[in-house]
Design goal:
Elements lengths: L1 E4 L5 E4 L17 E4 L10 H4 L2 E6 L4 E6 L6 E8 L3 H12 L2 E4 L4 E5 L4 E5 L10 E5 L3 H10 L3 E9 L2 E7 L5 E7 L1
Parallel strand pairs: 6-9, 10-13
Antiparallel strand pairs: 1-2, 2-3, 4-5, 6-10, 7-8, 8-9, 11-12, 12-13
Length: 182
């Protein structure tokens, strides 16, 4: 295989004509694949890298960068399911030194963990898996964006002490929540 640098900053791979018996799937003589490896800046973390996705353009066989995230939407809270609040509270307080604030008999919020979060022990309301909660400045606009992107609303907007939120699933079935503070 021959690597040919391109003026555009990309690389062109050229496969010469085979000089050996062709394998089950042979590559035709002179086959070319052109990739553009250019990006605005190299990522400094996976967070930066996840802001971009490669989009394949068949006509030119190049990769183009496309922005896929909405601005100002970050995970700010993690809600965990619990069977028994006292057991969960004691476990995390003793193990990690987290502090807790109770909100009724079935919910307690934790802090001093690096990320704020809570334990939901209400069998009718708790999720089966951890629930990342993302903050939005405009709940309704974010909901429409999620629907347009292929997400599904699983719990309509409701109020809680300090704001409003709704739950949704992504195309892989992961459940997340979007919240807006009051």
């Amino acid at each position: 295989m021959v690597v040919i640098p391109q003026r555009s900053g990309g690389i062109c791979f050229r496969h010469p004509a085979p000089t050996h018996p062709a394998p089950l799937t042979s590559i035709p003589s002179g086959f070319m694949l052109k990739l553009s490896l250019a990006r605005p800046d190299p990522p400094v973390s996976t967070y930066t890298a996840n802001h971009f996705a490669a989009a394949w353009t068949e006509e030119s066989a190049t990769h183009t960068l496309v922005r896929t995230t909405m601005p100002n939407l970050k995970i700010v809270y993690l809600e965990l399911p619990a069977q028994d609040l006292a057991v969960s509270r004691n476990f995390y307080a003793n193990l990690f030194g987290w502090t807790f604030q109770d909100y009724g008999p079935t919910y307690t919020a934790f802090s001093e963990s690096g990320t704020e979060g809570g334990f939901n022990a209400d069998p009718a309301e708790r999720t089966r898996t951890p629930l990342p909660v993302i903050e939005s400045q405009n709940l309704e606009e974010t909901e429409q964006s999620i629907l347009k992107a292929g997400g599904k609303i699983t719990l309509p907007t409701f109020s809680f002490p300090g704001g409003r939120r709704f739950h949704f699933t992504d195309p892989a079935g992961n459940e997340l929540a979007i919240m807006q503070r009051e």
